[in-house]
Amino acid sequence: MMKNLLKILSGREAGIFVMIILFCAAVGLYKPHFLSLNSLRIILLLVPLIMIGAMAQMLVLVARHVDLSMGSMLGFSAMVAGLMYRDMPDIWWPIGFIVAIGVGTLLGLFNGLLVTIFNLPSIIVTLGTLNLYRGLTFIISDARQINRANIPSELKAMSQTSPVFGIPWIILMSFAIAILTFYIVRYTQLGRQIFALGSNPNAAPLRGINVTKVTLIVFCISGALSGLAGIMYASRWGFVNPSNTGMGFEFQVIAAVVIGGVSINGGVGTVLGTFLGVILLGCVAAALPLLGIPGTTQSAIYGSVILIALLIDRSVRQRTTARSTRSWRKK
Amino acid sequence: MDKILISTEGISKQFASVEVLSNVDLDLRTGEIHALLGENGAGKSTFAKILAGVHKPTKGIINLNDRKVEIASPIVAQELGIALIHQEPISFPHLSVAENLVMGRKGKGPLAWVNWSDMINEAQKHMHLLGVEIEVTRNMEGLSIADQQMVEIARAIASDAKLIIMDEPTAPLTPREVETLFGIARQLREEGRTIIFISHRLEEVRMICDRVTIFRDGEKISTSAIDEISDEEVIRLMIGRPLGKYMRKHNVAIGAKALSVSGLSLKGAFQDINFEIKKGEIVGVGGLVGAGRTDVARALFGITPADSGSIRVDDKLVQITNPSDAINLGIAYVPEDRAIAGIFRSLSVEHNLTAAIPNKIAPHAIIKSHKERAFAEESIDKLSVRLASINQPIVELSGGNQQKAILARWLHTDPKILILDEPTRGIDIGVKAEFYDMIGNLAESGRAILLISSELPELLALCDRILVMSEGQLTADIRRENASQELIMKAAVPRVASS
């Protein structure tokens, strides 16, 4: 019992948890009302989209790939759903979810096909589709926004109303995705194969893992969850704009995932770490306006947070490698 | 006992129009340990990989239990009960031992549930059957090579492999680990499994194998029972001529002290190393992998400098804190792992050859390409590096020719002291012979040479003196005339459990 507790406390997750507490305490000292239930609500409302994106990006990074096109997939799927709502006002509103997720999956599949069939590096493929999908969003929307009046009120209500404890639907959904990801990662063949693939891509085919299939599935999941985040964007903000919607999303997502301890080199990452990384990013985002820091500096701050997280990660890892070499020498 | 498990007929393999294997007929019996012997490039590994489904034969037939089979992929091989244990075990370092054991087993679709407790129990059961103690819930990362091999063997047994191919399994192991491995190999033979054992080491083959097949230049030369063939015969068949001719010591006059080292230590790597090398002298360094030999070489070259002790070059006390210090003092280092530390993979042969002499080819920080070309061509000539074009990426050359290129690179710096770390590992016997000759010539020209090698015959034949290291200590300094394999091995093996 003691041993397990120590193991958890010494892990990466504990580090992020401590960072969250320290950060909140520091901000709380300066602005006491940061520690209220209301600001918890603000934090939680900031994170659902990032949470969903981060779960997908975690899988992609663990498989030793990266998906830079998430924000554009989000924007494109949200736009397709928005156009459908505008042009077919009588449609049953939940169809929007199916459409957005379906469109996202197709976009992700396209990324995956380029990566697997042509054996292209995912960073280049998704850099290309980041621009391609954004451009297509402008084309299909004629560069016009889908306005608040066109988004079904039931959809918008999902960001306000709640089935339990006053927690809005979209937050519950994002938590559900996190839990689902945990089970996929830990208890399915697919989850373990994603880790194996990222841990040693050369060994994977020799060990009978269908690398093409696993890679395609990972990119499809990334697309599907970006699509889900797209329809949730429409719910949360009540509009879909071809240039703003999803802009910079992949950046926030990668920040959260890296803070959460997922390795860029593949094979390493946990759902809990990713979850905490998202929450930490949410705390930072919620604290900025409260501290009177203007929105214009936000990007700079996010960027610094990623770099700090990378530095901490590096020093922690160096210390643990040093420890393991020492114990090896003793033997 | 003489039942045939697998037989091959006329197996041939071509890579890009080069035939690496031609017309191999071989029978493997149930419950035998069958050695495949041959020089590097003789085709034995290619043959093993064909059986394991890694390569597809260009032509030929494989029969398993008298039925023709197509081994189209490693997965098919696994289903047919054929397992290949690689020399450097393949593993997923971030996954647990238990997962590594079952990974890739035929699943019931991507969403099939992983039952951790069943998986751990099964893994523990197989570890017990093998009699090895490895915690199955820990990550693979950090396991010793020997333990990783055990996991692979356990994996082969867990998938009920009938044929287990071990590709040079003993190369990275200590003698005690080799004992354990052989014990397990015999146990597997008792259980009626067939083992293919690929090795360079004849004495090991004698210890456990029943029959031996010799490959040379892509052809099967002979198969015979191990007690019916002498060592001399095996060597003759392997290389086509007796080995002795390849290694001869040049007669060299030994000059003044070139390098002397005293009390050199680096925490966690080596302690209190004392030795000296004279001009024209070849000093060998023997020992097991991990004894600290490479660490000493790296310290002398300033890559990871020692933290105490002194180094003298030409009897002058010097400080070496980084490689450019070492280069300026006339020290050159040809590293052990050329793929990682030696070559600039994607650069041309030319750029690789001139990489150590920026000042000579670029007098005012601007590279004069005619000078660069002249230097490169001179060394290609001198060392007879075989290549298609001087502009070709160096990674396309064969191992031996890459090694020559790296040596050539350092010869441009006109080194007085040359440190060679396992220079002949993984290169063909023909190129090896050229290398031995080159090393002799370099000594003749008055250079001091420190030769780190794990091949005892090489050390015995070429060196004036042989130093031996074990666990970071210098344990012997043997003169040429007193040296023997036994003496070196005795000094190399760690003293039992001194901790």
Quick overview:
The complex is a heterodimer of chains A (331) and B (499). By secondary structure, chain A is mostly helical. Chain A has 15 helices and no strands.
- Residue-averaged pLDDT of chain A, rounded? 86
| Share of β-strand residues of chain B | 25-35%
- The biggest beta sheet of chain A, please? none
Biggest chain contact: A-B, 31 and 27 residues
Number of strand elements of chain B: 20
Number of helices of chain B: 18
Following the backbone from N to C, one meets helices and strands of chain A in this order, namely: HHHHHHHHHHHHHHH
Number of strands of chain A: 0
What ranges of chain A have pLDDT less than 50 throughout 5 or more consecutive residues? 322-331
How does this model look, in words?
The complex is a heterodimer of chains A (331) and B (499). Chain A has 15 helices and no strands. Helices cover 74% and strands 0% of the residues of chain A. With 331 residues, chain A is mainly α. Mean pLDDT of chain A is 86; it is low at 322-331. Chain A has helices spanning 2-10, 12-30, 37-46, 48-62, 70-87, 95-117, 122-141, 153-157, 169-187, 189-199, 203-206, 211-237, 249-259, 271-290, 298-330. In chain A, α4 runs antiparallel to α12, α6 (95-117) packs antiparallel against α7 and α9 (169-187) crosses α10 (189-199). In chain B, α4 (116-130) crosses α5. Chain B is an alpha/beta fold and 499 residues long. In chain B, the strands form four sheets. Chain B has a six-stranded mixed beta sheet with strand order 6-7-8-3-9-10, with helices on both faces. A six-stranded mixed beta sheet of chain B has the order 16-17-18-13-19-20, sandwiched between helices. Chain B starts with a strand and ends in a 7-residue tail after the last helix. The radius of gyration of chain B is 25 Å and the shape is globular. The longest helix of chain B has 16 residues, at 175-190.
